[in-house]
Amino acid sequence: MTDPDRTLLNDSVHDALQELIFSGELPPGSPLSVPALAARLNVSRTPVREAVQQLIYEGLATHTRNAGARVASLDAAAVKGVFEVREVLDGLAAHSATLMADRATVEQLTKMVQVQRDLLDEPPDQRRDAALDLQFHTLIRETSANRSLCDALARLDGQAHLYRSDMWVTELNRRLAVAEHQRIVAAIEAGDADGARAAASAHVAGLYVRTRRS
C-alpha cells in the first residue's frame, strides 16, 4: 500500500470511529478494542490503532494503563469549560469568516442551512443531522483561514458532541439549532462581522443550556 493510500485508509477509519462516537453508538466510557473495531470495520488493526491514537489526541478518547482506550467521559465541570471556550472561539471564527468569505462560500453556507431546514419536515436522524451540523461549523472555521483556531475548535467541538448526541432528536432542539444557524449565515452574508460573532456565540451558549437541561 502506498503512503497516499495508507493515509486515505487511516482517515477513513478515523472518520468512521468518530461517527460512531458522535452518533451515540459508542457512548462515553465504551471500550475501544482495536481487534474488535478492526473486525467491525473490516480493516486491519494498524489503521484502527492509529485512529484510536488520533482520537486520544483529539480528546475524544482516553487511555488507561491495563484498561486500554475508551471513549472519553468528561464531568460536568469539564463540559462547562469546553462550551465556555467554544463560545468565545466560535464567535471569533464567525467574525473572521465574515471578512474572508467569498460569494461561493456564502452560497454554500446558505445551501447547507436550506438542507437542514428542509429536513425538519422529516423524522430526525441523529447521525445525519450531527454530520450536517459538523460540516456547517467546519466550513465557517476553515473560511476564517486561522489554522490554530480551526485546530482548537475541531478538538473542542468533538468533545462537545460527546454530550449532545441527543441534540438532534427532539423537535424543539432541531428547530432552534437550525434557526441559530440561519442567523449566523444571514450576518455573514450581510458582511456584519460583529453580528456573526454575536450569533455564533449565542448559538454555542444556547447549545450548552439545552444540553445541560437534557
Describe the structure.
The protein is mainly α and 214 residues long. The chain folds into two domains: 4-71, Arc Repressor Mutant, subunit A (Orthogonal Bundle); 76-211, GntR ligand-binding domain-like (Four Helix Bundle (Hemerythrin (Met), subunit A), Up-down Bundle), CATH 1.20.120.530. Helices cover 73% and strands 4% of the residues. It contains nine helices and two strands, in the order αααββαααααα. It has helices at residues 3-22, 34-41, 45-57, 76-100, 103-119, 126-143, 147-161, 171-190, 193-213; strands at 61-64, 68-71. Strands 1-2 form a two-stranded antiparallel sheet. Strand 1 and strand 2 form a beta hairpin. Helix 4 (76-100) crosses helix 7 (147-161). The longest helix has 25 residues, at 76-100. The relative contact order is 0.14. The mean pLDDT is 90.
What's the layout of helices and strands?
Blueprint (H helix, E strand, L loop, with lengths): L2 H20 L11 H8 L3 H13 L3 E4 L3 E4 L4 H25 L2 H17 L6 H18 L3 H15 L9 H20 L2 H21 L1
Antiparallel strand pairs: 1-2
Helix pairs in contact: 1-3, 2-3, 4-6, 4-7, 4-8, 4-9, 5-6, 5-8, 6-7, 8-9
Concise synopsis of the structure shown:
This protein is mainly alpha-helical and 214 residues long. The protein has 9 helices and 2 strands; from the N terminus they run H-H-H-E-E-H-H-H-H-H-H.
